[in-house]
Amino acid sequence: MAVSSHCPKPMFSNNIIMTMEDLLPQKLPCFRCGVCCTRYQVCIKTSEAQELAAHLNMELGTFLREYTDPRWPGVTSFLLRHQNGACIFLERGKGTGLTVCRIHSFRPQDCRDWTPDTDRPECRQGLEKWGLHVNSSGEIQGTAEDMGKFRLFLETIREKNGTVHE
Ligand code: SF4
Ligand code: SF4
Known about the structure:
Number of helices: 7
Largest sheet: 3 strands, antiparallel
Helix content: 25-40%
Structural class: alpha+beta
Order of helices and strands: EHHEHHEEEEEHHEEH
Radius of gyration: 21 Å
Distance between the termini: 52 Å
Oligomer: single chain
Bound molecules: iron/sulfur cluster
Mean pLDDT: 84
Low-confidence stretches: 1-15
Strand content: 15-25%
Strand order of the largest sheet: 1-9-8
């Protein structure tokens, strides 16, 4: 069937740029890209290492051998080890690329203090994987299609409460 040239144009096309405000007026939540956990090695004090070891039901010495970086010269502080280019506690979902922190409920204080933000280069890098970017006003922008996919994804992870950083 021929389409009349008088048909109205669709309200949204893939080329229309939308901002996050259009679709999701809340603050940016952690969307589990894991970039921050690949970029930094977390520093922990001895007391924190003891707490983590206790949570994992391990002796402190075993915890330090398995999960901290032997190259760190600190005596009363330690660096969490990296493995396969990321924190040893970061787990990547098979096929999805999404990440989760295996010790999320008792993660180190530095990780608790880290919050997602559009100002952070790490979160911006994660947004690029969704085809989104942050403009000079700090707003997330992308096509209607990409923003729609991202919003749907955020709704899904919010329901599952599976963030890396809250
Ligand atoms: S805090 Fe930002 S960079 Fe880190 S995992 Fe969450 S969205 Fe990605
Ligand atoms: S949030 Fe978890 S995976 Fe990420 S750096 Fe901290 S301990 Fe590692």
